Amino acid sequence: MLASLSFGAFADEAQECQAASGTLIVGRVVSAPTFKHGVFRKGVELSHTHLTLRSDTDGKDYDVAVDNVFASGYQQGAKVVPAPLDSIEVGDALEACGIPFAGGMHWVHNNCGDTPTPQEPNGWIKKIAADGGIGPNLEDGQRYCYLWSHR
């Protein structure tokens, strides 16, 4: 249960997200991840996985847009939620560090080693275990970083 997490763990993660130029939302998944097509960049589809996260802080539902190219299981041309994002289920506790927008959040992925900025944070999406342990970034792939210029 999230209630068993210590305030210190949340504070540390919030500070880490702020240092990465992002905003942290912690909550529970209320709608399963779904695949959404995207635009193409250099021949690679920038598809997304969308899920709804209910915030533990304000109780609001947020549409989280997750860039599939940063997931380790992303396959060009596949029209499915890639691994490890496909392991996310309704009821899972997650934390998302990224850029909020009205009703949602995006940029919940690493920034390919660039210096984080508010427009390009070094974001993440992580599962929170029942014992309060925080898992690895599900969006830490860098295979497709060549699609963007770097500073």
From TrEMBL:
This is Putative signal peptide protein.
